[in-house]
Amino acid sequence: MTSKKEPDQYPGQYVEWFRRSSPYIHAHRGRTFVLMFGGEALGDELEELLHDLAILNSLGIRLVLVHGIRPQIDRCLKKAKKAGNYHNNLRITDAPTLTCAEIAAGHARVQIEAILSMGLPNTPMSGARIRVASGNFVTSQPVGVQDGVDFMSTGEVRRIDTDAIHRRLDDGDIVLLSPVGYSPTGEVFNLRSDDLAAAAAIALDADKLIMLCEGKGITDGRRRLLTQLSPAEADRLLNKKHLSDMCRSYLRAAVHSCRSGVRRSHIIPRATDGALLLELFTRDGVGTLISAEKYEDLRPAHINDIGGILALLAPLEAEGMLVKRSRENLETDISHYSVIERDGMILGCAALFPYHKEKCAELTCLAVNPEYRQHGRGNDLLEALEKSAQMQGIKQIFVLTTHTAHWFRERGFVSGDLKNLPINRRQLYNYQRNSKIFIKNL
């Protein structure tokens, strides 16, 4: 006799998460992602990571994998009682080191291919039937002499065989690139995995470059995760001492790829369970996005935002916190609204209705999605509309509220009364709601 077990301890949450992830599933299908992980990942946790990669492959994502081998080379050199030498965090590859690199790359390739070939029943790989393509896709050349230091067999990417890789991806294969390259004269070079990943992403015109890092990821000076950076912001961060050498190298590769045509680069802390899936299939992710595009933007509203604004306001209107607004009202007044948009979702909105004769304006309909109220977005909306008012010559703004009096008082508003309102607005005052009036001089 067998007992039936619940497939998920929290089925409702699972269903809700799956529904929320569906826009990302559709958006990622058919896209090309270059994904890089360091040699630190080639341990006990590799199987779990590759299972997640198998999920991406099954969802129609075209995957190019790049792995590192730095710790494996270091262990090989230590075993041979040889010293590893670096200059500016770049390995100097002498003959013994190159031998270790070749051994490590070969072992890593076999290890990765073996896991991706699994297909046992009742495992995440059941029925996957993944094909892995690897080979001499990378032509390289020596780094040469820098700062008077001869890097010997340390190389850099000269060319990526994009036609061959695209054919493998078109066939549904996962392409695996090891950090070794070959020259037309038959020489072998040891490559930096992050440089190889960036070069591959650029050459393949990839939609994303994704790098799994060790530690907490890209943080500010107080060790708080930075969720989004522009290339210029990332450049400034490169000089900060709190960044590890690995994070600095990954960040530099991400900036280079973004400026060379890759739309989005992600740096994700590998230690987070399911980090890759969380980054790709949830709105907020768990890592750092580096992109020239704005992932979250505060901007004037337009007609296509009305559906999102209505969805944002509906719960607040149902609770009586805001006056109900019809779609027709919003269409008429949309030019007065500003919104915060995050990856296609309206997170916040506010409206400013000026009374130019009285040189004042009403701030209304200030709302932020409850899940995003802890990061100052309400303040951002208020400041944006205050600046807009000042540019229009407005000297005073006022609000009518039934629930958020303290919030406005903490931001410089003071109590007012009906006589402070313009005559036209005074005539529309709803005595049944009995809203409190607050004013602020600009």
Detailed description of the structure:
- The chain has an eight-stranded mixed beta sheet with strand order 5-10-2-1-13-15-16-14, with helices on both faces.
- Helix 6 packs parallel to helix 8 and helix 7 (231-237) packs antiparallel against helix 8.
- With 442 residues, the protein is α/β, with parallel strands linked by helices.
- It folds into two domains: 11-290, Carbamate kinase; 296-441, Gcn5-related N-acetyltransferase (GNAT) (Aminopeptidase).
- Strand 3 and strand 4 (90-92) form a beta hairpin.
- 35% of the residues lie in helices and 24% in strands.
Strand order of the largest sheet: 5-10-2-1-13-15-16-14
Unreliable residue runs? 1-7
Distance between the termini: 76 Å
Which overall shape is indicated by the principal axes computed on the Cα atoms?
elongated
- Fraction of residues in H or I helices: 25-40%
Supply the CATH architecture of the largest domain.
3-Layer(aba) Sandwich
Strand content: 15-25%
The number of E-state strands comes to 23
Features:
alpha/beta; 35% helix; disordered N terminus; Carbamate kinase; eight-stranded mixed sheet; seven-stranded mixed sheet; Aminopeptidase; 24% strand
Helix-strand layout with pairing:
Blueprint (H helix, E strand, L loop, with lengths): L10 H18 L3 E6 L8 H13 L3 E6 L2 H10 L5 E3 L2 E3 L2 H22 L15 E2 L4 E5 L2 E2 L2 E2 L4 E6 L1 H9 L3 E4 L2 E3 L5 E3 L2 H11 L4 E6 L14 E2 L1 H7 L7 H15 L4 E6 L5 H7 L6 E3 L5 E5 L5 H13 L8 H7 L3 E6 L2 E11 L4 E9 L8 H15 L4 E6 L3 H5 L4 E2 L7 H4 L9 E6 L1
Parallel strand pairs: 1-2, 1-13, 2-10, 5-10, 13-15, 14-16, 20-21
Antiparallel strand pairs: 3-4, 6-9, 7-8, 11-12, 15-16, 17-18, 18-19, 19-20, 21-23, 22-23
